[in-house]
Amino acid sequence: MNRKELEPDSSPAAAYGARLRTSREERGWKQEDLAARMEYSSTHISAVETGRKMPTMRFSRSADRAFGLEGTTDTFERQWREIRHGSLLEGFPEYVGHEGRAAEVRLYEVGVVPGLLQTPEYASVLAGSAVKRGTVTADQASERVALVAERQAALIRTPPPWVFVVLDESCVRRPIGGPAVMGAQLARLVEFAELPNTVLQIAPFGMGERRPFDLPLYILTLSDRSLMSYAESAHRGHLERESKFVLPILTAYHQLQATAMSQQASVALIEQLRKGTP
User: Fold this and answer.
1) Mind listing the pLDDT tens digit for each residue in 256-275?
2) What CATH number matches the domain at 92-114+157-274, 3.50.50.60, 3.30.1450.10, 3.40.50.1110, 3.30.870.10?
3) Which of 13, 104, 113, 114 could bridge 109 with an S-S bond, Cβ 3.0-4.6 Å?
4) What whole-number distance in Å separates Cα of residue 124 and Cα of residue 13?
């Protein structure tokens, strides 16, 4: 039997394949055994192990079920996201995996409408701008737009999660992509606010120093009521799982909500901007 030796350090896909083979062999499984558990062909398993075929999200989740890794911090899905979204900041691919299963999502954004609420056109304009600046490739930009759609789709489930959003006023006043793109994006925000499981608020410029956050922030409440947060700067992201560090952030978020405009007043402001009457 010909056995191809693997070089895990040659590429992220090779590292994924090597890990898949090692995990399988540690359990004494043949490729056919793993294929049966994952509901894939043994040929497909072989191709991923040797790096001839890229893994997918579906494949990775199936591998996590087969190896009993669901709900852990070192899943094949996490590794796949790191491969696919290599241009994203550290910690964000892992955050996205948890976001899609969270019971409650809280977020605060400055400057631009966050991905969970973006229209495809708005997301494409932002990604295209990053290409022009040379910060990402065209392929990476396409992946970013696809990730926006993927994140939004993951939140459409039964029962749906609660999604609390506070946007700095700059998010709705900063024009992106011209009147048509921005108008459709503002309409999308109004539609979002009308959903039964969402709350949308604007943090007005007048809050001044009372605004507790200066950078984007995400807080998740998972199904077991545990908490995690994700925050990022221009060059680095950080995923925090320790409740003792997340709880003060959650408290500050509640203070932000209490000081921000009500949802009714926030929607009224957005409608004014849609009509071009500041």
Assistant:
1) 999 999 999 999 999 999 98
2) 3.30.870.10
3) 114
4) 27
